[in-house]
Specification:
This is Methyltransferase domain-containing protein. The protein is an alpha/beta fold. It has one domain: Vaccinia Virus protein VP39 (Rossmann fold). It is built from nine helices and seven strands. It has a seven-stranded mixed sheet, with helices on both faces. Helix 2 runs parallel beside helix 6.
């Protein structure tokens, strides 16, 4: 199974991520089922926990990194209210199109931009909160991305990341090569991305919660004043 995992990773090319996520954007129900499977049936609860951890207030500006089809928009719009702003960023044209359509449903300023998250289209110290759900582990250079998220955060601004990693303990971890191989073919998931470590090194007052034996986690932190 290790050979299969490596074969799947080796098949990636620079356009793999965009092709894959554009396909997902055209298959809403399949995408929702896939996310539910990744979060082991606790999608709503875990998104609620992630966004609540940002401690957003009416009028705040929040950045949704790798926003996908806008699955967080309703919760974020409720948190920042009609006077607040939600900025969604995604590299997939298909996901951006879906997110823009969804954003029109809410009484809030929602701006969706197609961009590379290593070059965020947001001014430094502009946002009060950064939300990332199942997105950082799909980006190759975690350190660069998280450093950029710190740059655009205001002093005291918060980050909240919901993501998944491979099984941490036996016997389930024996399935990791198969799961990682399949995921490499149908997503851009990097299971070894050092997300928790990088957030801890970049932000202050970092805390984390883990679920399902450490496979699913929420990590939060604040930018120093």
């Amino acid at each position: 199974m290790d050979a299969f995992r490596q074969w799947a990773f080796d098949r990636r090319d620079p356009t793999h991520s965009q092709r894959v996520y554009d396909w997902w954007s055209r298959h809403d129900r399949v995408y929702a089922a896939f996310v539910t499977a990744f979060l082991l049936g606790r999608t709503g609860e875990l998104r609620d926990r992630t966004i609540a951890a940002l401690s957003l207030a009416p009028g705040d500006t929040v950045l949704d990194v790798g926003c996908g089809p806008g699955s967080n928009f309703e919760r974020l719009a409720d948190a920042v209210g009609p006077t607040g702003t939600v900025v969604g960023v995604d590299a997939s044209p298909g996901m951006v199109e879906r997110a823009r359509a969804r954003g029109e449903q809410f009484d809030c300023n929602i701006d969706v931009v197609r961009a590379d998250t290593e070059r965020l289209p947001v001014a430094n110290e502009r946002v009060d909160g950064v939300c990332a759900t199942l997105s950082l582990s799909a980006m190759g250079d975690t350190e660069t991305v998280v450093a950029g998220l710190s740059d655009v955060s205001r002093p005291g601004g918060r980050i909240a990341v919901l993501d998944v990693r491979s099984f941490q303990t036996a016997p389930l971890r024996w399935l990791n090569p198969l799961i990682e191989g399949v995921s490499a073919a149908v997503t851009n998931w990097y299971p070894d991305a050092p997300i928790m470590q990088t957030v801890d090194e970049t932000f202050a007052a970092v805390s984390s919660e883990t679920f399902h034996g450490g496979t699913v986690y929420v990590v939060t932190g604040s930018k120093l004043d």
